[in-house]
Amino acid sequence: MSHLEERLEHDLNEIRDHIARMGADVEQALQGAFHALEKNDDKLAFKTVLSDLPINRHMRQIDRLCHAFIAVHLPSAGHLRLISSVIRANIILERIGDYAVTIAREAVQLGDVPEGYMSSELKKVSTEAISILSEAISSFNSSNAERARHAITMAKQVEHEMDGIYAELLDSGDAEGGCKRDTMIYLILFSQLKRVADQAKNLAEEAIFVETGESKKPKVYRILFLDEDNSCLGPMAAQIAEKSFHDRGQFSTGGIRAADSLDANMVAFMQGRGFNLADTTPHAADTSREALSDYHVIIGLNQKVMKAVDKIPFRTSALNWMKLDVPTEENQEAWETLYKNLALQIRELMELLRGDEAA
Asked: Rounded to 5 degrees, what are φ and ψ at 251?
């Protein structure tokens, strides 16, 4: 091994050691934050808060080492993948350290040991979040794509669990006449846990990139077009979106109620544009909060629609496209105006969600 190769390997090992130590410190901080929460231990909570300072110093040192490595060695291929991933992992771990600080501070504000449902759910989700983080850190340190994929699967499970927890917290707040102080603190705590799982998933994706070169796949957004009777606007919007963005989104449609049949004029217009609605029939959507939580975005296609939805899930966004006039007769120009209006708003939505990738 030449002197330059020895220097390169030495510098790589130094970076790996620093990121491993930072990962261990972040994991310890997260564990400390939840032990402080479970035991109402203010001393441990404040110790956890202050432990973020060494984590921040780690971050700055790793950042300097990575930029120095690039300047000295001009890396390519595998070495460049590793350094670019370390830079991103460095930011991810620093953020998780910040989440641990927030959890510790909220533990002090709570002032009591969590009890009942909150206690069991916090213990369950915190254990899962710390396990995901541990698996992600190990997969990154060892460049193990298989372990990284396991961490990603675990993180997705936590994401689904959070929907029910958020609903329970919001419902309890409604029952009490508005979110009380403790309810708000629990919302913050679970939100930080969700972020830990999300960031751990990002770290695992970096581990996969280091070993295989596979980049993170763009997110596919699930979108529901919700109309009054599902005879016209919803099916029309879903067809337009599917044609233009079939590989960038998953599009569904439903109504508050279901008409007996599709609007004949809409069908004729869409068929004239090459769309096939032969297998499309109006149907009512399940507007329960549990069912709507499957969607990233709900589009209400007239004002009455969103008023009929009882609860918008915590992680779902709802938009209302109100200025959509359905022609009352076979007026080609009016249908063309409606089509262009829908197409424009769909494109703007997809560009907002996916950026330039939507084009």
From this structure: -115, 130
Mean per-residue pLDDT, 23-44: 96
Residue ranges per structural domain of the chain: 3-212, 221-358
Strand ordering across the sheet containing 317-320: 249-255, 221-227, 297-300, 317-320
Is the sign of the CA dihedral 71, 74, 78, 79 positive or negative?
Answer: negative
pLDDT class of 177 with cuts at 50, 70, 90: low
Entry pTM: 0.83
Tokens of 119: 């206690």
Q: Which of 29, 37, 82 is nearest to 55 (CA)?
A: 29
Under 8 Å between Cβ of 155 and 308: no
3-state secondary structure of 284: strand
Phi, psi of 227 (to 5 degrees): -125, -170
Average pLDDT of every residue of the chain: 91
- What is the topology classification, in CATH, of domain 3-212? Methane Monooxygenase Hydroxylase; Chain G, domain 1 (1.20.58)
| Distance between CA atoms of residues 359 and 357, nearest Å | 5
**Cβ(75)–Cβ(85) below 8 Å:** no
Which overall architecture, per CATH, does domain 221-358 show?
3-Layer(aba) Sandwich (3.40)
3-class secondary-structure state, position 167: helix
Burial class (CB in 10 A: 0-12, 13-18, 19+), 253: buried
Token couple for 157: 């499970």
Q: Which helix (H) or strand (E) holds 250?
A: strand 249-255
